[in-house]
Amino acid sequence: MTTEPILIWGAGAIGGTLGAYWARAGVPVLLVDIVPEHVEACRTSGLAITGPVEEFRQVVPAVTPQELTGSYSRIVLAVKAGATEAALAALTPHLAEDGFVLSAQNGLNEITIAKAVGEARTMGCFVNFGADWHGPGEILYGNRGAVVVGELDGAMTERAREMHRLLSLFDADSILTDNIYGYLWGKLAYGAMLFGTALTNDSMSANFADPERLPVWLALGREVGAVAVARGVTSLGFGAFDPKVFAPGAPEGPQVKTIAWLADYTSKTAKTHSGIWRDLAVRKRKTEARPQIGIISALGREVGVATPALETLVALIEDIEGGRRPMAFETLKVLIEQCRSASTTV
Ligand SMILES: NC(=O)C1=CN([C@@H]2O[C@H](COP(=O)(O)OP(=O)(O)OC[C@H]3O[C@@H](n4cnc5c(N)ncnc54)[C@H](OP(=O)(O)O)[C@@H]3O)[C@@H](O)[C@H]2O)C=CC1
Ligand SMILES: CC(C)(CO)C(=O)C(=O)O
């Protein structure tokens, strides 16, 4: 068994939680993060994991990118999508020739990573557990959620099996898949809806439970579903969320049931609001809207699929980021009205 640490690049909500669990299980880990106070807390007093799943404190070796030396064969990338390129520039000199970067992120960062380090040095991962970085050395682990890993080409390699074994130490229900892009597209359908919930200050669950907002969730699910199908992706989900119900021509009944399930599912977490909401309302910073949601419209255009609701969603999020619109129902209402009138004209 190798004693070389797994490098976790970005030790916030997702990377920090994985790192604390792995370190506690005796897996050698080294966190890399640009927040010096967080790095200092992790390696001295320890990283405190709080919340309903489990509470513990774990010292985890950690460095800033400037302090890092050496070459590593396994790098888990867990920065927000907007930081992916900067992180890749800094990590590539530390990636072994025969090593790989595993993206523990939302969106299709694997495409960017593969361009930077090569497809053969990229592995995909779908993470759907909920966590929030609350301050240096403090992470709320709000709920368990799907963890799925796989090679981009679906091959069942030894290294993918090993990452699955390691991820299973974090969550025993982790899955090894031959269709990681299917899971990533499934999360994009849910993720687009999460961006919609962040247009207001209401919780994810309150958003999904409100019948007035239903046309938005349906339109976003259908647009992502249409692009996925046109690109030949077989989307996969989690729990009772099956993104295939949003495929073109699919009946509305199962779609409505899926949103009702999401209202219930998102009511059972200590992380009541999405990471997007947190970026806007708490961290006061740009979200992953353009790299995570904008890319769906760009990929849709390539195959002749229009995505008007997704485009308006990104514009509204960017208006909030730029201080041009409030985080409030009146902003979501713009999208509700667009989606309502589109569904009556079809
Ligand atoms: N949080 C969640 O519940 C979930 C998140 N995800 C996805 O996981 C990914 C990570 O999100 P999350 O953990 O929430 O984000 P966080 O902001 O909590 O953590 C990212 C950490 O990486 C740091 N960072 C930024 N740029 C760099 C860099 N160049 N090098 C090293 N560290 C850097 C950040 O610092 P700083 O804050 O100063 O930028 C921060 O400490 C995202 O794609 C997100 O959408 C997926 C499922 C659930
Ligand atoms: C809601 C969650 C945690 C997925 O369950 C997420 O992906 C986010 O906050 O962006």
Q: What does this molecule look like?
A:
It is globular and about 60 Å long. The model has no long low-confidence stretch (mean pLDDT 97). The relative contact order is 0.11. The chain is an alpha/beta fold and 346 residues long. It has an eight-stranded mixed beta sheet, with helices on both faces. Strands 4-3-10-9 form a four-stranded mixed beta sheet. The protein contains 13 helices and twelve strands. It starts with 5 loop residues before the first strand and ends with a helix. α6 crosses α11 and α12 (308-321) packs antiparallel against α13 (329-345). It has helices spanning 13-24, 36-43, 84-91, 109-117, 158-170, 180-197, 204-209, 214-230, 252-265, 275-281, 289-302, 308-321, 329-345, and strands at 6-9, 29-32, 47-50, 56-58, 62-63, 72-77, 95-104, 122-127, 130-135, 138-143, 147-151, 175-176. It has two domains: 6-178, NAD(P)-binding Rossmann-like Domain (Rossmann fold), CATH 3.40.50.720; 182-345, N-(1-d-carboxylethyl)-l-norvaline Dehydrogenase, domain 2 (Orthogonal Bundle), CATH 1.10.1040. Helices cover 45% and strands 17% of the residues. It binds NADPH dihydro-nicotinamide-adenine-dinucleotide phosphate and ketopantoate. Ketopantoate is lined by residues 106, 128, 130, 145, 194, 271, 274-276.
